[in-house]
Amino acid sequence: MLQLLQGHQHRVFSGLCLWHRPSNRMWGDVDVSELTMDRQSDSELERYLDSEQWQGKAGAFGYQDGLDWVHLVSGSESNVVGLPLEKFARLWQKAQTELAQQQAQQQ
């Protein structure tokens, strides 16, 4: 997988859904981040694989591990590591605003 990714740009997608109970209202969105991975020699890749840092990680690498050969091109770092916090905050604010408006209309 690392050999396929190196030297290319690729995208990380995370889907978010907030579900308000008991109203069953839902808000959803997708966040996209773009990364590029420098080319590595076979020996560099072997050294990384031997470190076992890749285990359990999507794409066989962890951006959060501070690898100097993986670069964020656009989007959110928090998206790459699993939860796009900026997108979540915007979605949460939207949900809170709409719920408050709905509550005000009902009074």
Largest sheet: 3 strands, antiparallel
Query: Which strand-content bin applies to the residues?
Result: 25-35%
Class from helix and strand fractions: alpha+beta
Report low-confidence residues grouped into runs of 5 or more.
Answer: none
Can you count the beta strands?
3
The fold-level CATH name is Maf protein
What overall form do the CA principal axes indicate? elongated
Output the CATH class name. Answer: Alpha Beta
End-to-end span in angstroms?
56 Å
Count of helical segments?
4
- Portion in helices: 25-40%
Overall pLDDT metric: 93
Q: What is the H-and-E element order?
A: HEEHEHH
Radius of gyration over alpha carbons? 19 Å
In short:
With 107 residues, this protein is an alpha+beta fold.
Describe this protein's structure.
The protein has 107 residues and is of the alpha+beta class. The chain has a single domain (2-106), classed as Alpha-Beta Complex (Maf protein), CATH 3.90.950. The protein is 37% helix and 28% strand. The protein contains 4 helices and 3 strands; from the N terminus they run αββαβαα. Strands 1-2-3 form a 3-stranded antiparallel β-sheet. The model has no long low-confidence stretch (mean pLDDT 93).
